[in-house]
Structure formats: structure tokens, C-alpha cells
Design a protein that fits this description.
single chain, 3-stranded mixed sheet, 12 strands, binds copper (II) ion
Length: 322
């Protein structure tokens, strides 16, 4: 599914879409009427009237004046009523959509914006079930999800048009909201607050799936990274662990535990590379590691020199982290 507020799949998104429809239809209708009347009166003006008719019109002008005044008063009244109505509708939708308290018992997901990717953390009272991941949020369909937003650097904005309205992520000032997907699906989200050079390449996916599939995903993600299945991947892991990658990335179950960049424990299971910038394929991954600055100029991932012979094992290893 693409990223579109017209494909609403959650109650808040549906309200926002309905608001847009009401505004759209009403304003287009008014625009049509105004343009129509303008064209009509322009045509009438151009018709030249004989002298005697003009004189007759002048005499009738006292009565006509009063009629016109009433017409203008009524039109003004209607305008005020419409504006008032739209204001009330708009404010009520805004109030519902920006309600920050999720229903009790909701799953809480902490979303931290970073230039230019998303750190995702599933909160849990049981520390062994806290999950850290990046750029892809899985949620159970039909359940309310509390989102606790934060930022590590500048102001970002969390936005999944099919599921909710925008919510700013502000450094040091958590923001709260909740969302729910009524239908299973893959919903694209995007940072909606200009946050620097790669703002446009700061996307993510929300994947809503039935509870049993979500639970299976969760259980699997909580596990440490898979052991390399073959010699090639084993070599790849060595390459990763002795290169500078470990200064920024974590792969649970190995010695790599840095939190500067996205957690890569189950990187191979994600749809995209670098916050929705590239589809997650071996070829794209090779391009990304060889020259991240070329793909995403300004990105905070450094170019780490990798020997040509070591690139293939490294890629095979990372893609095997499903
Ligand atoms: Cu951003």
C-alpha cells in the first residue's frame, strides 16, 4: 500500500479524511457558485442597453437597492454560518485526533527520531521482552498502540497518513499519541517536519498483522542474532566485528553493542535499507556499505573501507540476519 491519507485504515485517519472531504466538497461548490455568478454578471454588463431602458432602471433603483441590500445581507449571513460550521467541525476533529491518552493496556512503542532514521523500542514491564529495532514497526491489527515520541537531535514529526495525524518528536520533551490499524497491511510513514539534508529520506513502514503473526514476529525479534549458517556468513561476521561498524551498530548475541546507528540484529528481515531509501537487496546493501554518502549525502553513517574480497561475505552475513 502506498502512503496516502485517502486510504485511511484507522479511526483517527478516517476522521481526518472525512474532514478533508467535507472541506473539499463545500469549498469547491462555493468556488463554483462564485465563479459562475461572476461570469454571469460579466456577460450581462457587456450587453448594451437602449437609452430608455436605462432611464427606466434608474427610476426603479430605489426598490432594487433595498432588494440588493437584503441579498448581500443574506449572503453574508450564510458565509458566516459556513465558516462557523467548518471551524466547529475542524476543532472537534482536532480534539479527538490529538487525544494523547491511549486506552489502558495498550502496547507502548517508543519512537525516537534521529537524523535520518527511526529508533524503535517496544516497552515492556518484563525487561527480557523489551525490543529495540529500527525503521520498521510491526503492530497487531485491531489493537490500540500507544506511541511515545522522542528525538535524539532536532525536531522530527511522526506521520503515517493511513493511520493517524502528524505528531512532532521533540528533543527532551516526550509526546504521546495512540493509533490503531483496522485492517492488516503495510503502511508507509514519513518524517513530516523538515529536519535537515536527508529529511526526504526519512521514511519507515508500519506493518499491521493479525495477533498471532505479530506475536511470532515479536518472539523471533527478541531472540539474539542467528548464528551464521555457512562458512561465508561466518567470515562476514568476522569482517563486521573487526571493522569500524561495531563503533555504531549493535547485533545482539555478538560483541557489537553500539547504539549510534540502527540495531542490525534482525536487519535481514526488514523491507528497506536506510529508512526507506533503498529496497533491502544484496546489491543495494553492497552499494550502501561501499558508499553511504553517495546514496544519502550527509548521512551519519561513515564510509568504512572494506576489502573487495570481504564485501560479499559481509553482505551475505547481514542479509542472513532474518
Ligand atoms: Cu526527520
Amino acid at each position: 500500500m502506498t502512503q496516502s491519507m485517502w486510504h485511511a485504515s484507522g479511526s483517527n485517519a478516517t476522521l481526518i479524511r472525512e474532514l478533508a472531504v467535507i472541506f473539499g466538497i463545500l469549498l469547491i461548490a462555493i468556488f463554483g457558485i462564485v465563479v459562475g455568478l461572476t461570469l454571469f454578471s460579466l456577460r450581462r454588463r457587456h450587453r448594451s442597453l437602449p437609452q430608455e431602458t436605462l432611464e427606466r432602471l434608474h427610476q426603479a433603483s430605489a426598490g432594487t437597492e433595498a432588494k440588493l441590500r437584503t441579498a448581500v445581507a443574506i449572503a453574508t449571513g450564510i458565509t458566516v454560518l459556513i465558516l462557523f460550521g467548518l471551524t466547529v467541525v475542524s476543532i472537534s476533529v482536532g480534539k479527538i485526533v490529538s487525544a494523547s491518552m491511549a486506552p489502558a493496556g495498550s502496547l507502548t512503542i517508543e519512537v525516537t527520531g534521529a537524523q535520518w532514521w527511526w529508533k524503535i523500542r517496544y516497552a515492556n514491564d518484563d525487561p527480557s521482552r523489551i525490543l529495540q529495532t529500527a525503521n520498521e514497526i510491526h503492530i497487531p491489527v485491531g489493537q490500540s498502540i500507544a506511541i511515545r515520541g522522542n528525538s535524539g537531535d532536532v525536531i522530527h514529526s511522526f506521520w503515517v497518513p493511513s493511520l493517524q495525524g502528524k505528531r512532532d518528536l521533540i528533543p527532551g520533551q516526550p509526546t504521546y499519541e495512540w493509533l490503531q490499524a483496522d485492517r492488516p497491511g503495510e503502511y508507509r510513514g514519513q518524517c513530516a517536519e523538515f529536519c535537515g539534508l536527508q529529511h526526504a529520506h526519512m521514511a519507515f513502514w508500519v506493518i499491521a498483522e493479525p495477533a498471532d503473526r505479530f506475536n511470532a514476529w515479536m518472539d523471533h525479534q527478541l531472540e539474539p542474532a542467528m548464528e551464521p549458517a555457512d562458512e561465508q556468513s561466518r567470515r562476514g561476521r568476522e569482517v563486521f566485528l573487526k571493522a569500524a561498524c561495531v563503533l555504531c551498530h549493535a547485533i545482539r548475541g555478538t560483541g557489537a553493542g553500539a547504539q549510534i546507528g540502527p540495531d542490525l540484529t534482525h536487519f535481514g528481515s526488514r523491507k528497506t535499507i536506510a529508512a526507506g531509501t533503498l529496497v533491502n537487496t544484496k546489491g543495494n546493501l553492497a552499494g550502501w556499505i561501499a558508499d553511504p554518502q553517495n546514496i544519502k549525502p550527509g548521512t551519519h553513517m561513515a564510509t568504512v573501507p572494506i576489502q573487495p574480497a570481504e564485501m560479499q561475505p559481509l553482505i551475505d552475513y547481514l542479509e542472513s540476519l532474518r
